[in-house]
Amino acid sequence: MLSSELNSIKSSKRSIFTIIFLFIVVILGELITWYGNYYMFWNYAKQTHRHLSYQNIYHPTMTTFLSGNTSGQFLQIIIIWLLPLYLILISAQRIIDNNRNDSNYIYTSRYTKFKQYLGVSELTQFSIFTVFFIVLFGLDFVIAELLFHNGQSFMDLEDSVKYSHLLKLELLHPNLAYISFIVVVSMSFGLFAVVVHVLALLLKKPILVHPISLGIWFFMVAMPNSSTYFIQPFIEYDWGTYFSALISYLVICSSIIAVGNFWLKLRGRYVYLN
C-alpha cells in the first residue's frame, strides 16, 4: 500500500507540482528573512562604519517557518491556512476523481477486504504526510542554521519568560525545542491528512470535500483553543494553553476519523450484504 501510494504521487503532475510549490514557498520565506535581516543589516553596518554584533541578528530558530516571527510570515499564512487544499492535491484528489467516475474502490472491493484496506490506507496517509512535513520543516531548519548560524537575537522574548515556563525552556534549548515542534506538528498534519482521506471516501458528492475540509480546519484554527497555539513555537503561552490546544485538535480529528470509519464500514456492509 505504501509503495503504491508513493508511486501514485510520483506519477501525478498535480502532486509533484504541489510538493515543489510547498518547498519553494518555505525556502523563499527563509530567503526573504535573510535579505531583510542579515544581508541588509551588514550592508548598513559597512556603509555607516558602525560596529554591530551578532546579537542584532536573529537566532536561526526565530527565522524558521513554524516560528512565523519574521518578514516571511505571510508565506506561512498561505500554507497553514490552506493546508487541507495541499493535502487534497497531493493525495486525496485521486479518490475524489474516482468518486466522480463512480469507480471508487469501496464499490469494487469485497467488504472484508475493504475493512482491512481502510486501516492500512489511513496509516499510509499518516506516515507519508508525517515524513513529508518532517522533511519540509527539517530542510527549512537546516537552511535557517546555514543563513543565520551566528545569530543571537530572540526579538526580546527574554523579557516574557516570567509569564511562561514553556517559553523559558524554548529559549534555553531553542534548537531542541524547535526539532520537537517539527515532530509534533508534522504528526498533527499527518493526522489531518487522514481526516481528509476519510472525508474523500465518505462524501458521495466530491465537490463537498474541499469546503468541508477547509471548514473543519478553519474551525480548529479559530476556536478558543486554537491549533496555532501548539503549531507555533516561541510564543508567550504556557503549558496549559499548549496542551489544551493540542488535545482539542486530537479529539476533533480522532472523532471525525472514528465516526467516518464507522459510517464507511456500515455503508460497506449494506452495499455488500444487501
From TrEMBL:
Keywords: Membrane, Transmembrane, Transmembrane helix. The keyword Transmembrane helix applies. It comes from the Bacteria. The chain crosses the membrane at residues 16-36, 74-96, 117-139, 176-202, 214-235, 241-264. This is Uncharacterized protein.
